[in-house]
Amino acid sequence: MTRRRADDHVHPTLDDPVVTALSEGVGGPVGAHATRHPWWTPARVLVLVAAAFFALGMLQKSGCYQDTWTNDDRYTHMCYSDLPYLYTGRGLVELDWPYTDDPQVRSRYEVMEYPVGIAYFAYGAAWVTQQVADSGDVHARSDQQVEDVAATPQVRKEQRGFVIVNALVFGALAILSAWLLAGAHRRRPWDAAAFAASPALLLTGLINWDLLAVVMVAGALFTWARGRPVATGLLVGLGTATKLYPLFLLGPIAIICLRERRYRDLVDTVLAAAGAWFVLNAPAYVVGQDEWKRFWEFNSERGPDLGSAWLVVSQWSGEAIAAGTVNHWSWALFGLWCAAVAAVGFRAPSTPRLAQLGFLVVAGFLLVNKVYSPQYVLWLLPLAVLARPRWRDQLVWQASEVVYFASVWWYLNGDLQPNEGDQVGWYWVAILIRMLGELYLVAIVTRDVLRPDLDPVLGDRGDDPSVEPADHQLVPNQRNRAEPALFHA
Asked: pTM for this one?
C-alpha cells in the first residue's frame, strides 16, 4: 500500500519506483516530517515545468524560423511545422474567411481541410498577426499571383509572426492542460508531471493545431472527475468541433454510466456535447456548406499516409490501396476494437476510470487509422498519463514516439533510402516500433482495468480507512456498487 504523509498527497518519491530511485541523488524520498511549501504547490510546480518544456519546444523549432521553413533544414533540424505553409496556402494571408464561397478566393486558394474550431482559430490568429505586423490592406494582395504574394518579405515576416502568435497560445493551452490534469485527482496531482515534462509535448506541440483539442480533453477529464457531466459534454462537443477524436470519449462515458446506472449523467453529457458541436458548426455550415464539407471529403478521399500501418503494407507490396478500401477496413477494425474495449469495461471487477477507457479507444483509432502524423501523440498524452501514472511505462511509450519523430523527418529528407533506392525499410521499422510502444501501454492499461489491484490509482487504497477516492468515478460500482502541409487534418 502506498505511503502518504499528513498533507494526503500521493508523493511520487514514495509511490513511483523510478522517481524513488532517482530521488536518491538528491537525498532520497520525502521524509515523514517534511512540510508543504506555503506557495510552491504541486499545481504551480507543474505549471512551471509545462511552461519550461514548451519553451524548449519553441527553441527546438527555432532552426527553421529565420529561413521561414523554406529549405530542407525543416527536416534535418526536425523543426517542421504546418503553420507557415497553411498561412499562405489557405487564404489566411489575405484574411479570406475559411468558409467563403467567393469564386475568386476559391480559384486562388484551397479550402481549409480542418474542423471549424481550428478554422476559426487560424483565422483569428491571422488577424492578430496582421495587426501586429502592420500589414495594411491584405485584401489588395488578390491583384497579385499567389506565388508572388507568398514570396514577399512582408509575408515572410507575417509567416514567422503567425507561428509566434500560435505558439504563445499553444504554450498557454499546454500550461492550462497540465493544471487541469493536476486537478483531475485531488490526491495525485503529480501524475500530470508526465504531461508537463513530456518529450512528445516538447517535440510535436508546434507542428499543427492539435493542442486546441488536447486542452478540451484535459478539461473533460477534470470536469468528469468533479462530477460535472454537462461541463464534460460541452468540452467534448467543443473538442469534437476542433478535432474528431474527443468524440470517442462518449463511448467510455457510456460504459461508466451504464455500469453505475447513471443514466441522467449520460443523457446530460451527450446532449451537451451535441449542442456545443452544433453551435460551433452552424455558422460555417450556413455561410459555406460546400466549404464546411471539405474536412469530411478530404479525410474520406485520402489514401494511406505517413505513420500508418496501411502505408507500410502499400509500400511493401508495391500496390496502391484505394482510399475506399482503407476507409472500410479501418472503420471495421476500429469498430471491433471498440467492441473489445466495451467488453473489457463491462467485465472489469470495478468501474474503470475514464482516462483508462478513453486511452484504449483513442489508441485503437490511431493504430488502425490511415494516417498517423507525429503530433497525434498529443491526442493520447493527457489520457495516457492519467491512465497509467507510472514513469517507467510512460518513458517506454514516449521513447517509441521519439524514435518515430526522428525517423519521419529522415524519411521525408530521403535519408532512409539507401543508395537512393525505393526501399524505406528503416522507416517501416520506426512505424513498427511506435506501434509496439503504444500496444505495450495498451496492454498495461488493459491489465489494470481487469486487475484493479495493479492500478496505481485504485490499487493503492488497500485497507487504509483514511483514503477516500477523489471523485465518484474512482469508486467501484459506486451507485450500484508528403508535401507541406504534411500533417494537416
From this structure: 0.90
